[in-house]
Amino acid sequence: MTFTNLAPFNQKLRDSGKTLTERQFMLMLRKVGLELLSGIVFRTRVKTGRARGNWQVSINNPITTETENVDTAGSSTISSGGSVIATLSNMTLAQIEKIFITNNVKYITMLEEMDGMVNLTLARIGTIF
What we know:
This protein has helices at about 5-15, 20-45, 50-55, 75-85, 110-115, 115-129; strands at about 55-60, 100. By secondary structure, it is mainly alpha-helical. The two termini are about 25 Å apart.
C-alpha cells in the first residue's frame, strides 16, 4: 500500500529535528505519534470494531500479526498504543529507528483505499506540526 503523504510528512519531521533539542524533539515525537494514532483509529470505519481494534504501535520493528481486539469506540486501542508511545520518554533518539502504526486485518487495505484514514491523518497532522 502506498501512502502518498508519508514521505513529505517524514521529511517535515526530520527538518523539525534540526532546530529542536533532543528533549524537545522527543516530546514532539510523542505528541505526533499520539495524534497520528488517534486520527487513524477514529477515521477507521466501524462495523464490528475489528479493524479499529487492530491498530498496533511498535518501535523499530513492525507487528505482523492480527489481534483479537474488537474496539468500536477506539479508546482501548488508543490507550494501548499510547502506552507504547509513552515508552519513548525512556529512550534516546539514537535508540529509535522507526515508529510503526500497523493494522494486519485482511481488509485494511480496502478500507484505506475507500476512506484514506492513514493518508488523511498524515495530511492533517503535517499541517499542524
